[in-house]
Amino acid sequence: MLGSNTKIVNICICMSESLPIKRCAIYSRSSVEKDNLDPFDSVSAQFMACADFIGSQVGKGWRLVDTIYEDRGYSGSHMRRAGFRSLLNDVKFGLIDVVVVHRLDRLTRSLADFQQIMAELNAHDVSVVSVTQQIDMSHHVGRLATNIITSFAEFEREMVGQRVKEKRAATLESGRWQGTSCPLGYVVKDDRLVVDQVESKVVQEIFTRYAN
Predict the structure, then answer these.
(1) Same domain for 26 and 120?
(2) Is residue 10 part of a domain?
(3) Is the CB of residue 178 less than 8 Å from the CB of residue 171?
(4) How many CB atoms lie within 10 A of CB 120?
(5) Number of domains comprising the chain
(6) Core vs surface per residue 176-202: b (16+ CB within 10 A) or e
(7) CATH number at residue 51
(8) Distances (CA, A) of 138 to 23, 88, 144, 185
């Protein structure tokens, strides 16, 4: 019995070795900077989930590339991200066959950008796989579902931005300070700006010299 199991394993290994290798790159992104106190953050969790999925596809010739593509503290509303730009450059150089993400909104939360990204990947015959969203983008129904998901991601981003603006407006209207650091000449007390007697003299001196 043990011998037969060994033969099966050897056959599977030979079959996987005979298949063309699919070079898989993982892209992970988080809008929040990494918390140094928590070594296992959102980006790390995304990477592990994607790596496990790639491992389950070894029999199909999938192999994880060595380069890590990730962005921490970057919004999905734009493509000005170092890790993402590095990924696209390697795609253009023909170093990647499959891009694996935890969710499609890790790539972008803009429908227009998503269509641009997909056009770039398709031009280099690179496919996209979402670990949590089983969608076949080679079919028109899959492409429709992808556009709907991306549209909802864009809508969610806009709603979050609107809520942040409303909160800031309400905070400012109540007279509370919103910034992380106060301007020169002031100190923050009870969430409000209060004149600092020492620093305010420096500010007054600066304006006096400028006026003169």
Answers:
(1) yes
(2) no
(3) yes
(4) 13
(5) 2
(6) ebeeeebeebbeeeeeebeebeeeeee
(7) 3.40.50.1390
(8) 19, 20, 11, 61
Please give the structure tokens belonging to residue 53: 């999925």
Closest Cα to residue 25, out of 109, 104, 86, 112? Answer: 86
Contact 76, 112 (CB under 8 A): no
Q: Buried b vs exposed e over 43-58: b needs ≥16 C-beta within 10 Å?
A: bbebbebbeebbeebe
Angle at which helix 111-123 crosses helix 140-173, to 10 degrees, equals 140
Residue by residue, pLDDT tens for the chain (212 residues) are: 445 555 544 555 555 556 789 999 999 999 887 655 556 688 999 999 999 999 999 999 999 999 999 999 998 888 899 999 999 999 999 999 999 999 888 998 887 888 888 889 889 999 888 888 876 554 565 666 666 766 666 666 667 667 767 666 666 666 666 666 677 777 777 777 777 788 778 878 888 888 88
